[in-house]
Amino acid sequence: MRVFFDSEFTGLYQNAALISIGMVAENGKEFYAEFDDYDRPGAHKPDQWVEDNVIKKLTIKEDYLFHTLDNSSWKVKWNTQNIADALSRWFIMLYEESGGALEMWSDCLAYDWVLFCDMFGGAMHIPDCIYYIPMDICTLMKVKGVDPDISREEFVGMDGDKHNSLHDARVIRFCYNKLVKM
C-alpha cells in the first residue's frame, strides 16, 4: 500500500525539527500530527517565514490523540516520541489491512525523509512494515514529462491550505494518481 506524506519543519538546515506531519494512505485513511516539542534544545528555531506560513496554520491547541472508530482519521498533538508511537500503530493497522510493506511517497522529500527517520531514532529503526526506499513525486513528474517545478495544486485542480502537511499529503496523493494515468 502506498502512503503519501508531507511534513513541515523549522527550516532547511541540519538540526531542523518537525512541526507537523500528514499522511494519506492509498485507501484514504489519514494521519495528522502536530509536534509540541519542535523548539527543544539543539533544534533550530523557526524563522519568520515558518512562523507566518506554517505555525499560524496549526490547528490543534493542546495535547491530543483522537481517531475515529473506523480508524479512518487520526489526529495527534504530542511530543516526538508519542507521535512516533501513535504513527507506528497507524502503520501497523495499514500493514495488516494491505498484507504488504508500506511504500512511502512524498514531494521533494530530502528533508522530509531524514526527519521522518529521525523521529524513530534513525533509518535503521523505522517500523519494519515500511519499505526502506522512499519514493519522490518529483522524479515521477520528470519521468512523465511534467515540469517538477509546477504548482501541485494547479496540476491537480485543487485549492486549499498549502503548507499544512495533511493538505499537502492529499495533494501528493492526487498528483500521484494523475501521473500514473498519464
Order of helices and strands: EEEHEEHEHEHHH
Report the principal-axis shape. globular
Number of helices: 6
Number of DSSP strands? 7
The CATH superfamily appears as Ribonuclease H-like superfamily/Ribonuclease H
- CATH topology description: Nucleotidyltransferase, domain 5
- CATH class type: Alpha Beta
Mean pLDDT: 93
Q: Which sheet architecture does the biggest sheet show?
A: 7 strands, mixed
Ranges where pLDDT stays below 50 over 5 or more residues in a row are none
CATH architecture: 2-Layer Sandwich
The helicity comes to 25-40%
In percent terms, what proportion of residues is strand? 15-25%
Distance between the termini: 20 Å
Whole-number tally of structural domains: 1
Largest sheet: spatial strand order: 4-5-3-2-1-6-7
What Rg, in angstroms, do the CA atoms define?
A: 16 Å
Derived from helix and strand composition plus strand pairing, the structural class reads: alpha/beta
